[in-house]
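protein under study:
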Amino acid sequence: MSDAFSLDGRKALVTGANTGIGQAIAMSLAGQGADVICAGRSACAETVGNIEAAGGTASDLRLDFSDPMAAREIFEDESIDILVNNAGIIRRADSVDFTEADWDDVIDVNLKAVFFSCQSFARSLMRRGADGAIVNIASLLSFQGGIRVPSYTASKHGVAGLTKVLANEWAPHGITVNAIAPGYIATNNTAALREDPERSKAILDRIPAGRWGAPADIGGAAAFLCGPAARYITGAVLNVDGGWLAR
């Protein structure tokens, strides 16, 4: 009987794979058998080491999406059939004080780079006549406004819309395009929130699951969306938030 969740024989590129959610996604894909290219602005040696220690296959690649076109040549020589766009940045300031530089920096990494990475990847698949899967990392702020993060909110709303339009266009080519909207996940990025007793309690009181998410919760969802079991799922934005948006 075939394994509907196996990624054996697949090759994946995961961006922002050096830590946190990206690291967990890379490890989850490798755990299902994928050969994973771990891409980051800084070295992904820890992620690669964890994968290899568990018997998987991985490699390290430097990609800095301050140049939104950084991945334009990656797919020319690599037979990659899974792309996970996880790399992202955030800038915080009151909207009346927000600078053009902070707007452009976030939009470039979080939205422009995602589109052009997807485009280069899809061109490669179509040229080879191969199926493939894209998973974009959206956010709760793909649905909500947040506070003091105008460019981040705009970029993540854009990721949700981009996921849908690419799914519509590329489904006939056997390419699925989905997104994951993580909730409050226990990573370095949320350390300050978790260490603030009042903020942490307010957040946990809103989450029906009653706990912070773990990076592996996102990793498992990504591995599912990349595998055979999800071949009829495209254009979806999957909330992995412990029920936050349902409350």
